[in-house]
Amino acid sequence: MIILASNSPRRQEILSRFTDISIVSSDIDENNDYYDNPIQLVMALSFEKGIAVALENPSNIVISADTVIDFNGEILGKPQNREDAKNMLQRLSGKKHKVITGYSIFKLEKNIKYTDYVVSYVFFKDLTEEEVEDYLNTEEFWGKSGSYAIQGYGSLLIDSMQGSFENIVGLPISKIADDLKKLFGISLLKEVLKNEKSGDEL
Ligand SMILES: Cc1cn([C@H]2C[C@H](O)[C@@H](COP(=O)(O)OP(=O)(O)OP(=O)(O)O)O2)c(=O)[nH]c1=O
């Protein structure tokens, strides 16, 4: 069984659509000042999140991920407080930014330690002060990189996007499916059929 090393309900929801998973939470310090390159940062953080869990479970496939926003070269993570969130949303307003998710896949008994990343683009609408305040009042911004959730009320803030939607939500499932095929010969569609997951509710 695949282990997802994550506390993120979004990541759990995405991966569990395709295969049975078990969750092992990974608590690492995400305040990492070593990297000013967002790609290096998300790859390093995802590796760190996953490796501790992989060492405990060497015979399992372990997947971990980390998501940040790259706003003209500046890294935006999760907001510390409402003020911080307001500031991020006002800066993203009317502009394009990158959402970068780094992810790692491990199976240590086979000496597999794989890390990669996926970039998506999000174009924000011009937001009024009132719209920003109303969105903040939904409290959805907590725990979200860039202070919004494209899968939630944040969809109203967004003009358009380019690339993988699931990557923005935190797990680039299409790319990970390709990697699972390459690394282990596992097909997520075959997993869906094997586990008789129903497509009816989607
Ligand atoms: C941009 C964006 C981010 N997010 C979320 C995905 C991630 O959960 C979160 C970024 O924080 P992360 O640090 O990547 O992940 P996490 O702390 O939530 O979970 P874990 O480290 O245990 O795996 O932002 C959305 O849900 N929607 C969005 O539109």
TrEMBL record:
<feature type="site" description="Important for substrate specificity">
    <location>
        <position position="67"/>
    </location>
</feature>
<keyword id="KW-0378">Hydrolase</keyword>
<keyword id="KW-0546">Nucleotide metabolism</keyword>
<comment type="similarity">
    <text>Belongs to the Maf family. YhdE subfamily.</text>
</comment>
<dbReference type="InterPro" id="IPR029001">
    <property type="entry name" value="ITPase-like_fam"/>
</dbReference>
<dbReference type="Pfam" id="PF02545">
    <property type="entry name" value="Maf"/>
</dbReference>
<dbReference type="GO" id="GO:0036218">
    <property type="term" value="F:dTTP diphosphatase activity"/>
</dbReference>
<dbReference type="GO" id="GO:0036221">
    <property type="term" value="F:UTP diphosphatase activity"/>
</dbReference>
<dbReference type="InterPro" id="IPR003697">
    <property type="entry name" value="Maf-like"/>
</dbReference>
<dbReference type="GO" id="GO:0005737">
    <property type="term" value="C:cytoplasm"/>
</dbReference>
<feature type="site" description="Important for substrate specificity">
    <location>
        <position position="10"/>
    </location>
</feature>
<feature type="site" description="Important for substrate specificity">
    <location>
        <position position="151"/>
    </location>
</feature>
<keyword id="KW-0963">Cytoplasm</keyword>
<protein>
    <recommendedName>
        <fullName>dTTP/UTP pyrophosphatase</fullName>
        <ecNumber>3.6.1.9</ecNumber>
    </recommendedName>
</protein>
<dbReference type="GO" id="GO:0009117">
    <property type="term" value="P:nucleotide metabolic process"/>
</dbReference>
<comment type="function">
    <text>Nucleoside triphosphate pyrophosphatase that hydrolyzes dTTP and UTP. May have a dual role in cell division arrest and in preventing the incorporation of modified nucleotides into cellular nucleic acids.</text>
</comment>
<feature type="active site" description="Proton acceptor">
    <location>
        <position position="66"/>
    </location>
</feature>
